[in-house]
Design a protein that fits this description.
It is built from 17 helices and 15 strands. It has about 425 residues and is an alpha/beta fold. Strands 4, 7, 14 and 15 form a 4-stranded mixed beta sheet that branches. Helix 8 packs across helix 9 and helix 16 packs antiparallel against helix 17. The longest helix is centred in the C-terminal third of the chain and has 18 residues. The protein is globular, with a radius of gyration of 22 Å.
């Protein structure tokens, strides 16, 4: 998951913001912020470069409750790690924003406060987004935004009307490009990472963990090496066998290579996510976005849906106030306002039909692809999945192993790692 989260910081520079509320709420960047004598009622850790999206809502909450809120920007994927250290020391945030797939582990570690949120409040969010915040029937946060993979295409190289409809057609198109032009590519993606490969493998019947009748994940039901996963991996293997994906796309630097090829005009299309919208625009690429293509078996290519949330630290001395703030900051009005500033697609169901959201090409593509997306399993056992499966996919990509041998080996590693934690 570290590879995916590294994308979030792509092209985003750290900066400081200041917003004035009734008692002078402040926004800072840096790990030392909030560790001096407390002159505030709540400390909020917001994502990098996103504090301006909640500035007005923070000021309104301060005025209504006669409190002072301090906002500090931190990379959202690392906030739980910081809370592990700062929470017990009394210097951690009251409210944090984290990825939905960290909820399960965070609850197991006792880092998050259970929230007393009524059903009416839960119902304003999309079902999958709200489900990401529930562990064993208890609510531990409220959704802030949703994201999933989409297809970016360079309009100078390919027009919307020319986009292949299926993955097989993309392979044919990409083969034609690489055969005719040196260092030019059609569709490229980091398919050696399960975060991206899962959308193909699941379309053929693969899955990571099975689910119980109540929707919870069953870590004993591992599907990463079933017939569907293997068939999907063989489809992925064709892209490497045909040479339409550059060798540099495999491994730790794959994401950087992908972004470079697209921003240099050497790739007609890439599979990425909303974190690339601004960087690609800043690079001067005239791009369009679309949902992912169909698979050749008639199924739609899937994807993981990521959920960002606001959560209350179990170490908070003002837990009730923090909980009230979380409900306020994620309501429909403030979610829409945050979207208008940050362009992060809100998790509020009603906003999916709002013209202010649907007018954005990026948001529309995310909403369309979200129909075929599934939650990243938010259980602790998922931590044992990423590395073995990525390793297996890389051996497939480099021709060192076949899906029939690599995926069962990865499954054995995962089962062993899970058993070791029990």
């Amino acid at each position: 998951m570290k590879k995916r989260m590294a994308l979030v910081g792509l092209g985003i520079a750290l900066f400081s913001l200041a917003a004035c509320g009734p008692k002078g709420n402040t926004t800072e960047s840096g790990d030392t912020a909030g560790k001096s004598n407390k002159d505030y009622d709540l400390l909020v850790w917001e994502d990098q470069s996103k504090a301006d999206g909640i500035a007005d809502a923070v000021a309104a909450f301060e005025k209504e409750h006669d409190v002072t809120i301090k906002v500090v920007e931190k990379a959202y994927a690392q906030q739980i790690e910081d809370l592990r250290l700062d929470g017990p020391a009394g210097t951690g945030a009251d409210v944090i924003t984290i990825p939905g797939d960290q909820i399960g582990t965070s609850v197991t570690e006792g880092l998050l406060k259970e929230l007393d949120v009524d059903q009416a409040t839960q119902d304003i969010y999309t079902e999958s987004a709200m489900q990401s915040q529930i562990v064993d029937g208890k609510v531990y946060g409220l959704p802030k935004a949703v994201e999933t993979q989409i297809l970016f295409y360079n309009k100078d190289l390919i027009q919307e009307s020319e986009l292949p409809k299926t993955l097989g057609e993309w392979l044919t198109y990409s083969k034609k490009i690489t055969d005719n032009e040196k260092d030019k590519y059609g569709l490229i993606s980091t398919l050696d990472q399960i975060y991206y490969a899962e959308g193909i493998m699941s379309g053929y019947g693969g899955y990571i963990f099975g689910q119980n009748d109540d929707g919870s994940y069953n870590p004993d039901d591992l599907g990463i090496d079933n017939a569907g996963s293997i068939e999907g991996a063989n489809v992925i293997k064709k892209f490497y066998d045909e040479g339409v994906l550059p060798s540099g796309l495999v491994g730790e630097q794959g994401t950087n290579v992908l972004d470079s090829l697209f921003t240099e005009g050497k790739a007609a299309a890439v599979i990425s996510g909303p974190w690339s919208l601004s960087p690609y625009k800043e690079a001067g690429i005239d791009y369009g976005v679309a949902e992912l293509p169909m698979l050749d078996n008639g199924k739609h290519m899937g994807s993981f849906i990521g959920v960002k949330s606001y959560n209350v630290s179990s170490y908070s001395k003002n837990g009730d106030l923090a909980e009230e703030f979380v409900e306020f900051i994620t309501n429909e009005e403030n979610s829409k306002q945050r979207y208008e500033v940050t362009a992060e697609v809100p998790a509020v169901a009603a906003l999916a039909e709002d013209e202010a959201v649907t007018a954005s090409e990026g948001a529309a593509a995310i909403a369309a692809q979200s129909q075929y997306a599934v939650l990243t399993p938010g259980i602790t056992e998922m931590n044992s999945v990423w590395e073995p499966v990525d390793g297996a996919l890389q051996t497939i990509a480099t021709g060192k192993a076949t899906p029939e041998t690599a995926l069962p080996e990865a499954a054995a590693q995962i089962k062993s790692a899970i058993a070791a934690t029990k």
